[in-house]
Each structure stands twice: as C-alpha cells, then as structure tokens.
Design brief:
The protein is built from 17 helices and 29 strands. With about 575 residues, it is an alpha/beta fold. The protein is globular, with a radius of gyration of 24 Å. The two termini are about 35 Å apart.
Length: about 575
C-alpha cells in the first residue's frame, strides 16, 4: 500500500512560532473556549479496520505503521483537520522537538481539531511527544505553548541528579490506576527515549495512570476515558509476555485498538524495577565480492578472511539475523554500513531495504550508521546530512550513528569555539532531538611514558604498554580506522555532547575481535566524562565481560557482534548471568 506523504517535509526545519500562533493555541485549547464551528465536522462511520495516523513528518513512524498492520488494521494518514474529526481511532506518534511539532499542528489547522477530538472523548493514543504536546507548555527551546489539555509544564531531566540525559532504554512503570492498555505490562520493562518529561501534580493527578522513576518520578502515561497517551514507545517495547507469543508493546496497542474485546489479563512475570542495562546486537553490513549485502565481522577492523582468496568474511544475512536477535532478547539492533563512506548514501538502496524489511518484524529500536554526511552527487545536486538521515528514519531507523563526520565537526568546534549549526550532529538533533543522534568513536590506544607528553587527555592504564609505558591516550580515527586524527576520544566525546549528540557508541580498535573483554580504562574514561549514555563496544568474548563493564564503569549499554553471530555466547546467557549477579536487565 502506498503511504501518504507527511504533512511537512522532515528535511526542513520549521520556523519558530510567532506570537499570533501562540495566541491561537492558547485561545483554542481545551481549557479555554470550544473550537469554532468551522471544524464542526461530524464523525463518519469509518471502517472498524482503519486506524487514523497523525504523522507530522519527523522521525520514524514506520514501526508504528508496521505494528498497526501486524494487528490487522489499515492505516489512514491525516491530511486535513477533517481527517482527525472523522477518525474512529487516532494515534499520534510524536518524535522530535516540541516547538517544531506545535508549529506544524498550528500552521496546518490541526491543533484545534485535535483538541475537539479529545474533548469529545474519542479514542486517542499519543506516543512520546504525542503525550507531551497535551500539556500546557514545554521548556524546550524556551517556553513554548502546548495544546493545554493537561495541566503542567514539560521540562528537561535534571542531570545534576546523577542521571544521564537523554533517558534512553528500558525502564519499569509504577501503575497508579486502571489504565486498560497497560494491563499486560505489570513488572516488565518498556522502552523510553526522551530528554524532556512532565511531572505529576495535584492539578493533573486525575490524568496520571502510571509513573516512572528516573532521578524523579515523572509521568509515564495518562488516561481519561478513551483518551490515552504514553511517554514510552509501545511499538519499540517488544518482548514476550510470559511464554506466550504476545509481545508487551504490541499488547498495549492491541488493548487500545480492541478496547471492548474479551482479552484476559495475562499473568506478568517481569522483574523490572528501574532502568535496565542494555545488551545490543551489532551487525556490520557490507557487500561481498559478489555484490550481495552480508553481515561480516572484523578482526581489528579487517573483515577479510586470511586465505588465498582473501574473501569478505560472511556471517549471515542482515534481515534474518536482526529478526533472530530480536527473538533472542536483544534490547536494540544496530546496523553499521561499513562501506557507507565509499558510496553516495542516498544511492545505497540495499541498506534502505534492509531497514524496511527489518522494521516489519523487529519491534525494538534500530540504529543505522555509515555514510551520514553532506554530499554532492554526480549531477551537482547537494544533499545535507539531514536529508540523508531523514531517508533512513523514514525507512525504519530510530537512531542515526555518525562516525567520521562527527570527528571533523568536533575538530572544527574545538578549533573555533563556535557552533556553526551546519554539522550533521547539529542539523539532525535540531529536528529529531539529540536522542536520535549517536556518535560512534573509533579510537586506537597510544602509549606514552609521561602524562604531559601529549596535549590530549591521558590516563594511567591497567596494563602497561610494550615498553612498560604506564600512560596512554586514545587517538580517534576516521574512514573505518584507516586514518588517525589529531584529537583524542576524551576531547571528541566532550565536544560532540556539546554539539547535540545524545549517545556515544564507544569502540576500541585494539580490542576489536579479540574476545578478551572491553577496554575498561577507555570506557570508564569516557562514561565518567560525559552526561549522555555511553555504549561499550569491542572485545566481548564471554558473559563475564558484560558484567565487568557494567560493574567497573558507568556504561549504560554493552554491544557485541561476533560472539552473537557465531553463536558462541547467546544473548539470553548474557542476560541471565547479569541478572544472577544483581544487574537489572530486561528479560
């Protein structure tokens, strides 16, 4: 089925709202007067198998579409305010910046129709930003008015409380009242990815159906009558309920779409109580010598077999492996297109197809990296990194991983001290939010005799160098580790956080493919230096290595590839070991 185009191009940053549009939103919010008669359209008797989707053009909503279709419904996109008022059931999966979303809603005349729809207690489900927009205002990008349906202000998480911002990962809910759609969740984890949240208060307590603790208790879901909204992502909260075939995230959507069906409340066996440590499966994807897209794995970034033929090491097909890892319990799946820097990204159609097909059956977050940069094609047409990223988002990616381009941006920022707004990090985070931007760092250990031998951050290493050196710094590389740059991993991490990155994927060329454990010195250095989440990567060879990195560093997640591809260590075994040792994980 052909998908309707979004209401606004995601590659263009909406302009900031004028005072008149703010007045419009306050004037027409539910807490003020009723909407004008111009939008008084009677609801039509639309087919019971249709879900109306309000896609305003930012972020990945493909997984929401796939989940809806998986449950037996068709998707109809909102094009006009009448489409909202004629809907039998409406889902609003908001992703990105609060101000940009409100700008689209007001300019297209949708804000007033949405308020009327909700006021009339029509079936509504808001997701993530779709919950936040229901509140009076947000502190993101200054004070910005929301729809004003729920009392309260959406504010940023306070990192001074010791929490990392964005809040990314699987956390537990404290259910406050009968929420209907959360009946199957119980003590299971659900997936959050956001930097801003609304807080419970006496004024909005009648709305709050569940909270979540992350530094403070924030609102995780609201319900009033047929109106529901959740801060987390049910379409990404895959995970089996007990031993049934039903998945937690899909069960939430199912209970919304079938509110009157005799669905029994399933027994819940989850053990979630706080933010879980994540176990991520990574798939290095490239073409083999025959031109087929395959999953490979490097040994210190060398992906070719040491044979006479010197062929690309093949460990499986990307879509099949992604589906297997989802079934095995991976908390996220990351695709790294390791030849992306050689070809034009928008011409990389096989990788886009991988995302489309994977998102049909994988209901956990998908990250894609490789070739996210500005470029000019052979015809002279220029594409911004934002346009490139947008294509990946529309094909099913939840997060974009930026490698070499982030190194160049950080070098420029450290040299000038000026945020140009033109780097890929800044462009993408401005439209999609910093939680959508991962920076992949590929450093190599460089030993030195004294801390003051180089201008970069050095540390005393646990294992001395080949000549007894007690200190080392970590030199960043580009182009798949082939070129060293004059910047350290510490300096790069600090710079990209300031530029707008929401997460760091921390590799180590020295440990890659060795199976001797993560570089604990490096992971500790970077995870202590920044306030955004850090994913430890490179070197995992046993379940004990995951325990070590989580107990000795502040890593939020750990990633592995080869040991999963070769079935040497199952994902389930990693999680069972961590749980046994007292580390919270999603089971």
């Amino acid at each position: 089925m052909m998908e309707a185009p979004p209401l606004v191009s995601p590659t263009k940053t909406p302009t900031l709202r004028s005072a008149s549009s703010l007045l419009f939103l306050r004037k027409h919010s539910l807490n003020c007067r009723r909407p004008s008669r111009s939008f008084a359209v009677r609801a039509s008797a639309a087919s019971d198998s249709v879900v109306t989707l309000l896609d305003y053009g930012a972020g990945n909503v493909r997984s929401v579409r796939n989940a809806i279709r998986r449950l037996g419904f068709e998707v109809r996109d909102v094009q006009t305010p009448k489409d909202i008022l004629n809907a039998n059931r409406l889902i609003f999966p908001g992703v990105g910046a609060f101000a940009a979303a409100m700008d689209v809603l007001s300019k297209n005349g949708l804000a007033e129709a949405l308020c009327e729809y909700i006021e009339n207690d029509r079936p509504f489900l808001g997701i993530c930003l779709g919950l936040q927009l229901l509140f009076e205002s947000s502190e993101e990008k200054g004070r910005v008015s929301g729809l004003g349906l729920i009392p309260g202000v959406v504010g940023r998480f306070d990192s001074s409380n010791g929490v990392r911002v964005p809040h990314i990962g699987w956390n537990a809910l404290q259910i406050k009242k009968d929420s209907l759609i959360l009946d199957d969740v119980g003590a299971h984890h659900v997936y959050f990815v956001h930097s801003y949240r609304a807080m419970p208060s006496d004024e909005n307590k009648e709305w709050v159906s569940s909270t979540c603790n992350y530094g403070d208790n924030f609102i995780a879901s609201v319900r009033r009558g047929n109106v529901h909204a959740v801060q987390f992502h049910p379409e990404k909260s895959g995970g089996k309920i007990s031993f049934a075939l039903s998945h937690i995230g899909l069960s939430i959507l199912r209970r919304f779409l079938y509110p009157n069906s005799p669905l029994e409340k399933k027994p819940t066996e989850g053990k979630g109580s706080k933010l879980a440590k994540r176990v991520i499966a990574c798939l290095d994807v490239r073409t083999n010598d025959k031109g087929d897209l395959v999953v490979t794995k490097g040994d210190q970034y060398d992906v070719r077999e040491h044979t006479k033929e010197n062929e690309v090491r093949e460990l499986g097909k990307p879509v099949e492996l992604a589906g297997q890892y989802y079934t095995d319990g991976a908390d996220e799946v990351s695709f790294l297109n390791i030849t992306g820097f050689r070809d034009f990204p928008l011409g990389d159609l096989p990788m886009l197809k991988v995302l489309r097909y994977a998102s049909e059956n994988v209901f956990v977050p998908l990250t894609v990296g490789g070739g996210i940069r500005d470029f000019t094609d052979a015809t002279g047409r220029h594409y911004s990194s934002l346009e490139v990223a947008s294509e990946y988002f529309r094909c099913g990616a939840d997060k974009i991983s930026i490698g070499s381009d982030a190194v160049y941006a950080a070098e420029e920022y450290l040299r000038t001290g000026v945020k140009s707004g033109k780097s890929s990090i800044e462009q993408i985070s401005r439209v999609y939010g910093n939680q959508a931007v991962v920076v992949s760092i590929d450093p190599r250990r460089v030993y030195v005799k004294n801390q003051n031998d180089v201008k970069f951050k050095t540390i005393r290493v646990t294992n001395p160098g080949p000549n007894g050196e007690e200190y080392a710094w970590y030199q960043c590389t580009v182009s798949g580790g082939r070129e060293g740059r004059p910047i350290g991993a510490y300096e790069l991490a600090k710079a990209v956080e300031e530029l707008g990155a929401g997460e760091i994927l921390l590799n180590c060329i020295d440990c890659d493919g060795q199976g001797k454990g993560f570089d604990i010195d490096l992971v500790k250095l970077i995870s202590d230096a920044v306030t955004i989440p850090v994913i430890a990567s490179s070197g995992a060879g046993a379940v004990e290595h995951f325990l070590e990195v989580f107990t000795k560093t502040n890593a939020s997640a750990a990633l592995a590839a080869g040991i999963f591809h070769r079935k040497e260590v199952p994902i389930r075994s990693v999680k069972e070991h961590l749980l046994k040792e007292g580390i919270e994980v999603r089971i």
